[in-house]
Amino acid sequence: MTLVSFSCRICGAFVSRPNRSTSGGYCSNKCVAHIRHACSISRNRFAAMCTSLDPVDSKINLAPDCSAIDELPVLTQEALWTFLLRIANTCCTARQAECIRLHFGEGLTQREIAGKIGLNQSSVAHSLYGIKLTSNRERDARHQGKYYGGAIRSIRKQLLNKSKQEQLQALLTSAGVLAVGPALNPAPPDPEVQRKDEP
Predict the structure, then answer these.
(1) Model confidence at 183, in pLDDT bands (50, 70, 90)?
(2) Most Cβ neighbours (<10 Å): which of 2, 49, 82, 174?
(3) Is residue 98 part of a domain?
(4) Does residue 192 lie in a domain region?
């Protein structure tokens, strides 16, 4: 069996492992720095889903582009997480808020959360992302394929509130980064209005 030596991509620890179990270049899945890094990625993914440009009624993108949020200073990322978590605590049920905190804040999987709070995995998924109606009854035809409920959907609806948008805009502007929310990017100027303003 061939041993491969490498430095952990997170904490820098030098380890030797069999070629087939290099764990993607990490020293251990239990590495404290690795877990902290994974939680940071998870929080940014949560922020990207909440501030997505997709319509609120559409399916939530499970692999959003986090690049704009990843480039924020660490303190701003933490402030954004705290801001969204505070919204979750006000607009979501206690179970939904707890699922968000455990899944995105502590990096637990849906299965781990289910075991911890006494639910099944599908209930955790529904608490986070909502449920898709698939009824074949004729009276429910207009609802087929739509997603309802879910903590992230509730937070996104809250972010449509003007005061919440202004708070998020101020938070991101203070870091010198353009906002990434649904209605936060400034609309392009109307050429007609621009011509009227010209002397």
Answers:
(1) very low
(2) 49
(3) yes
(4) no
